[in-house]
Amino acid sequence: MDCAGPFPCLPPAARTLLVLRGPDAERFLNGQVTQDVRSCGEKALPACVTDAKGRLQFFVHIFRDADGAFCVEAPPECRDELLARIDRYLIADDVEITDESDRWRLTHILATEPPPGPLVREAIRLGPRGFDFWVRTGEAPALPLSPLPEDETEHLRIRHRLPAWDKELVPGILPPEAGLDRSAISYRKGCYIGQEVLSRIKSAGKLNRRLAALRVPPETREKDPLPGGEITSVSPLPEEDGSLLALGYLGKTAFDRAEIDLPGGRAAVLGFA
Q: In what helix (H) or strand (E) does residue 245 lie, and over which residues does it extend?
């Protein structure tokens, strides 16, 4: 991607943005999320906030700002509950949490190299390499941008088997069911809330359901039933043969099946997230 632009991107959006500062911030945050925050650098790392049973409460991205403080980013609707969840465990730690959600807007840019900007972090949001480009609220991005249509961004996400909040990712699922164990969970760091359960799942290698990539008939809709689960996302753009790509959860009895019956026909199982 030429740094001259214009940059294909997601439209600027409000996000939950919590900033943790203080000498205990790294240790405290590492005890709250599944990711090893010590590896935060120039990337925004995906992570899960789980309960004591290892079940998902929030899906977040974590990065450091220009001053080295830890930033926790999440969908805007998670703002109050996420702040309360993190603050609940802040007892004797020397950590200050500030809610800066109203001060920043996020634009995700597809590019092979980081674009110039005061706060830019590499992140995977749609599949291709991209960068989170943060701009203060009320300021225009100092870059030529080309917002992608919503149907194109959703097609990209589904093609690359990336689960989305409030679709594949909902409170109560086990993160490995959605394939998050490959990108958002560190099994080498110390303890965190839910760590014991997730470690047992990894050791046993058993799940009751998994998020699958599917090729489905054009009549397929979200919530259509699957063996042990349901369709969670359907691409708005058709493939060359008229079929659609989709994501959905399959129960363990269907893990080895190449095809699945749907109300509108048969679906091909392309693999798992």
A: strand 244-251
Cβ–Cβ < 8 Å for 132, 218: no
User: What pLDDT digit, counting tens, does each position of 128-151 carry?
Assistant: 999 999 999 999 888 899 999 999
Amino acid at position 221, single letter: R
Which two three-digit tokens encode residue 198? 């997730």
Question: For residue 89, what are its two tokens?
Answer: 């465990």
Tell how far CA 132 is from the center of its chain: 13
CA distance 250 to 225: 9
Task: From 105, 103, 37, 102, select the one nearest 72 (Cα to Cα).
Answer: 37
Q: What is the value of pTM for the model shown?
A: 0.95
Beta strands in 137-217 (DSSP E): 145-147, 209-216
Name every residue whose Cβ is closer than 8 Å to that of residue 226 and which is 6 or more positions away in sequence: 212, 248, 249, 250, 251, 254, 260, 262
Residue 41: pLDDT over 90: no
Contact 110, 129 (CB under 8 A): yes
70 band by pLDDT with thresholds 50, 70 and 90 = very high
Burial of 129 (0-12, 13-18, 19+ CB in 10 A): middle
* Calpha distance 130→228 (Å, rounded): 34
